[in-house]
């Protein structure tokens, strides 16, 4: 599941990535977004009990990202 989380993270644009890191920091009461990115996402050391919740969060963020991109495209 960790690899799936990494793949979803890599599909995020900068804005969505920042939002994801802030959400994870807040949701799991972590010390910093740098910790989340370095240890959980890049390092692959996501506690197993949190992985399912992170997948749901990332799926929702990616869905929102697609809607935002489609909105911009339609407005042009």
What's the order of the H and E elements? HHHH
Q: Which descriptor suits the 3D outline?
A: globular
Question: What is the structural class?
Answer: mainly alpha
Distance from first to last alpha carbon: 37 Å
Question: What can you tell me about this protein's structure?
Answer:
The chain has 76 residues and is an all-alpha fold. It contains four helices and no strands. It has helices at residues 2-10, 14-27, 33-42, 48-75. The chain is globular, with a radius of gyration of 13 Å. The mean pLDDT is 92.
Would you spell out the secondary-structure blueprint of this structure?
Layout: H1 2-10, H2 14-27, H3 33-42, H4 48-75
Provide a quick synopsis of the model.
This protein is 80% helix and 0% strand.
Descriptors:
about 80 residues, mainly alpha, about 0% strand, globular
């Amino acid at each position: 599941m960790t690899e799936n989380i990494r793949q979803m993270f890599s599909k995020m644009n900068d804005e969505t990535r920042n939002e994801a890191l802030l959400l994870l920091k807040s949701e799991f009461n972590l010390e910093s977004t740098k910790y989340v990115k370095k240890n959980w996402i890049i390092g692959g050391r996501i506690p197993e009990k949190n992985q399912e919740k992170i997948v749901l969060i990332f799926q929702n963020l990616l869905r929102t990202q697609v809607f935002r991109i489609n909105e911009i495209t339609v407005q042009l």
